[in-house]
User: What shape does this take?
Amino acid sequence: MDMERKPRVLLINSPTTNQMKVYANIIPVEFVKKHHPIGLLYVGTYVKNMAEVKVMDFEADVSEKKYIYMVKEVLRDFRPDIVGINAFSLTLYDAYEVAKIVKGENTNVSVVFGGIHTSYYPYEMINQEFIDFIVQGEGEETFADFISKFGTDEMYYIPGMISKKKNGKYPDIITNPKRKEIENLDSIPFPDRQLLIDRSIYRNLLIPKAKETIMISSRGCPYSCAYCQVSGKRYRFRSPENVVDEMEFLVEQGYNYVDFFDDTMNIRKDRVKNICREVIKRGLHKKMNWKFRGVANLIDEEMVGLMKESGCDMVYIGIESGSDRVLKSVNRVVTTENCLNAVRLLKKYGIKIMGYFIIGLPGETEQEIFQTVNFALNLPLDYIQVNVLVPVPGSSIYLSAINDPNFGGDYFRDYTVKPEKNFRQRFFETSVSEKRVKELQKYFYKKFYLRPSFIVKNTMRQNFHSLPYAFKVFT
Assistant: This one.
């Protein structure tokens, strides 16, 4: 690289091609929602004054042939010095394929992997011949440090990175100290969505005319739900003023809908209330709507009233189960009564509700699954998402599963070493069989979405775009 110019950095959001093929019978690809790759945009924005930066993303249904062509075209036109690729567990096969394409075009390009999967299997990843560096944890400061040292020997010794340094036949693997989390989230620049090569692939499935983007107002989650990868991370948050500053900035860019992607946005009730007040004070409630993911036991009437007034029109609630015994067994802090009260409050103020449910949890009986179905049918929910529990790395259930001789060991480690094209996650059978749980998942969806009351309600709302989904998936 010519040291007189800024390095060129291409950040790539891994294609979902092969996972879409595997799960196409569950979720038709036309109903898969694409979100702005907010993590890559944060990193790209943080370093854009130090480097030439582009961010590449793909349609959910992009074919393997097409994404290979697209990546090669950008590599030849942009000629990056550094390519950063995110590593989500389920898209690892395609992420590796992209890295191979990069190295096939130019072996001198430095390939950097980041994302949650690097926290669990960093050495299995760094030993891949097409990966040069691993970023662990938050990427902004680490990647900026890396770019400032790029092209020198110091780039191998960046806190927060694991590096591969050529040394004869066998390279040295250098493990650097972990980097502290960023304390002041207000200090991080707002993600610049203009860095995206193609901004036309994002849409709101429920409100097709909305120009939507996502925001993150906090990081981490103080809870320890047994099925979750986020468990145990320290909760940090942006100030209400900083959050609304970004909302105002987005309105100026032409956006009129924000989906807050925090793991749990309402951990601090007063902060959410103050965000609402600030939105109203600046008149943004007349220019945009918004939604968020929240926990039921921290929703109160004052909050819901302010949410409605400030333009919040939908909330995603993790209900998970209709059995308090099951909720307690997976370390949930909420009860069914909390969920019932929260849903009733939201409905009182005319806010739509998506209920999240998980079935097949360890020790859950078939009777308790039916209890969950009946609980959902008796709640005034607008939409549901029903997931079959599959243990994921970093969760306490995954640790239990890999120590169970019937589960088959740490198969995600094997997958990281050598990903399979048609990879499927394993079910952890403790009570009800996998076959029966998947039958009950379809039954759950049918009972909810094919009710005459649901169809009539959505027809009266002229909410026709949600009906084809129900009929295509569940009939």
